[in-house]
Write a structure and sequence with these properties.
The chain is α+β, with helices and mostly antiparallel strands. The protein has a single domain, classed as Roll (Nuclear Transport Factor 2, Chain: A), CATH 3.10.450.50. The chain has five helices and six strands; from the N terminus they run H-H-H-E-E-H-E-E-E-E-H. The model has no long low-confidence stretch (mean pLDDT 88).
Amino acid sequence: MTEPATEAVNAAMEAEFRLLDPAVRSTPALLAQLLHPDYGEFGTSGRLWNRASILAGLQSHDAPAPRPITASRMQGVQLAPDVVHLTFDTESGGHRAHRSSIWRLTGGEWLLYFHQGTRFTEAEADAPSPTVAE
């Protein structure tokens, strides 16, 4: 049974959608407002990122312009009064990824604490889920 979205889940989703906006992702000051000081990420490339490396990458002279991202199937659950877990899929430039984000309420703002992206293909998206042996 799916729990109804809470105010916290809705706030985290709104913040996630801001983060997916290319204008936010291309502006270090705007991005910094959404990242927790202890932010960490396992990128779809397998690379490990932290807040400093993400912001430095945006400021490098050879940083590519962020592509538009389409998000789908976003859902969330409030794990604690100050923690929300979101899962969703994205598509950008022909690449698809399953995504998982942990948002923490910090200083009255929902900040992205952890993110992981895992690439998948259309064939994998349509494959039936494996069953767990009992």
